[in-house]
Predict the 3D structure of the following.
Amino acid sequence: MLLNRKQERVRGAAPLQPNPLASTGGEGWGEGASAREPLAIYIHWPFCRSKCPYCDFNSHVREGVDAVRWTRALVADLERQAQLAPDREVSSIFFGGGTPSLMPSHTVAALVARVGALWPVASDLEVTLEANPNSAEAERFAGFAEAGINRLSLGIQALDPEALRFLGRGHDRDEAIAAIRLARATFARYSFDLIYARPGQSVAAWEAELDEALSLAGEHLSLYQLTIEPGTAFDKRAARGEVLAADEETGAALFEATQIRLAAAGLPAYEISNHARPGAECRHNLAYWRYEDYLGIGPGAHGRVTRGGGKIATRQRRAPEAWLAAIEESGTAIDEETPIAPDEAVGEMLMMGLRLIEGVARQRLETLAGRDVEQMFPGVLPRLVDGGFVTLDDDRLAATAAGRQRLNAVLGALLAV
Ligand code: SF4
């Protein structure tokens, strides 16, 4: 599969860079989306206990973190960005990172409460926090539940002890299983992540690991294919000739086995790497994939907000200390607020939406582009349909299973038009 890890995991990350040709500015975009349209809020905690060798996220190891300053700054960022998207109803909050389970629970509580003071919230508000098993003390989980977290997403990554060591994880198998059990006992909803396509991993070994995962799972699992990302420790080792991930053919066989196993267990894929019982999907991540509006709070976080009939992209300063200093000095660390040109928005909607089994709503795509889907992709669309890579009907444009396995190539063909 050609997708990279950054595309696979969505944490308030922008699928495309803002259009460098578009003008920048913070005023004059007119009215935002109509009142009470849903809004998702992503909050980034950029600190981890150690850096995993495959990870290219905006995560950093620091000796001490001043919780008071960080709480104040994140709340200030939230208040400032509320001006970008007033009159909405917040549908989800997602604490990602980094390792947000290292946040003090009172920081989480302060942010959840501030969201509730700034916007009306949906009656079924989803509030997710990512956690690592080695920060899974019972008191911390209870504190997060009390702070308003109702969905926990655990970074388990492997149930095989050797694989955990290979991935440089700071927890062992027993801690992983204990954390899953504690999550199940504490939160209304929980999910955990595993990484597959590790070097030397056989389909049979992965199926056995999946079976154990299914015995521990609730209604949602995220299963990511290992890729070597530029700038990571794995990247440096790979450059020296080490084989650190499965080859493409094995990766495809593991992906296929994953789809079959999970569907048979009642957790079919709803996105390339995400599986859930119908109705138990992560609503926050669905907002990204459906190209709905979201605010990105914290260092390096991106946002997409509808203003004046189009969307603007926001991008924050990435380094934690620079972000904190900017917020404390001027109340904002947003470096860019860029209107997204319609063609670029179409590209973003496709890049996100074709990851979903449901695909992209045809009407939304055509409204955004101002023309029919057939006119958007003359020539290439019939070829992709005939080749069995996409389907198009009156309601939706979707990638088939074969198309999702080659999504970068499908997108390349569509977006080259
Ligand atoms: S714990 Fe997660 S965010 Fe932190 S370094 Fe590891 S993979 Fe990256």
Remarks:
- Residues 27 and 387 are 46 Å apart (CA to CA).
